[in-house]
Amino acid sequence: MSIPVDYSELYWSAADGTEIAARKWTGPQPHAAMMIAHGIGDHGGRFEHVARHFAREGFDVLIPDMRGHGRSAGQRGWIKNLDTLLDDFELSLEQTRTVAAGNPLFVYGQSFGGLLSLYCVMRRKPDIAGLTATSPPLRIAMRQPAWKVALGRSLGSVFPRFSLNSGLDIDQLSDDPQVAGRLRADRFHHRRITAAAWLGMIEAGQWCLEHPNQLPLPLLLMHGDADTITDHLASIQFADRQTAMCELKIWPDAKHELHNMTNRPAVLDTIIRFQNRCIREAHRNTG
Fold first, then answer.
1. Rounded to a whole number, what is the distance in angstroms from the first to the last CA of the chain?
2. Which CATH number is 226's domain given?
3. Domains: count for the chain
4. What gap in Å lies between CA 243 and CA 106, rounded to an integer?
5. Is residue 1 part of a domain?
6. 116 within some domain
7. Mean pLDDT to the nearest integer, 193-215
8. How does pLDDT run across 164-201, given as a tens digit for each residue?
9. pTM for this one?
10. What is the span of the domain harbouring residue 59?
């Protein structure tokens, strides 16, 4: 018998008035809550199977669409600066904290959402129980033509809203061919990115690699070694520099979207075990 999961939609305004749209899933008797942060060009609707899996395991799940993505307002792919995204992230965390109603709060970020989550945790130290980051672009594996990098840098300062195609090869996201097929038909997915977003991503990844001692809480860091979009070696490098708080899991032959690989139940269950372990350890430390 399938465990029932309730679905609802939420909206709120960011500090500058931009409307943020979010999806929420709730199962029976939740014992914790989690916020999921998606990547550039993505949106929360592509994580429905993930959210339902977690909700059935006792986690309330909130997934906001980043500004300029999904059903949230804003130019597609445009990000003014990292501080704006960090402010949005913290506001979304507070919305999730309300959903949590006193239960432990976790964050799971995928791709740029994983990097943004890690960067926020290390820079602003929000009060959460643990973080999972999958395939974060601590360093980009996807090579960009020199002309595109030069054009982005030069136009970014003069025309900050100027955007380019990200060059994302959606066939490299998963070993499940249905993933790419569904994505091609997804009206909310886009492949636009502005220079500010691209340069901010590189800046955040480099900062995290240079300051691993700023990680204040448990981190589950996962990457596929067949990821051609973000560099799994950078995740290994980060974990080697932060052995106390970071648990590293490299998935053999896995591509960029671990949650959409054919072995996704094992990926999601690894996150659940990590989060439940964090809860048990916190109880031991306080009890």
1. 36
2. 3.40.50.1820
3. 1
4. 20
5. no
6. yes
7. 89
8. 556 678 899 999 999 999 999 999 988 777 777 778 88
9. 0.93
10. 6-286
Residues 6+ apart with CB under 8 A from 226: 252, 253, 254, 255
Q: Which pair of tokens denotes residue 53? A: 């899996």
**Residues paired with 9 in a beta bridge:** 23
Residue reference for tokens 């395991």: 57
Residue 129 resides in a domain = yes
Alpha-carbon span 151 to 137, nearest angstrom = 21
What pLDDT, on the 0 to 100 scale, is given for residue 151? Answer: 59
Residue pLDDT, tens place only, 20-31: 999 999 999 999
Distance CA 221, CA 214 (A): 15
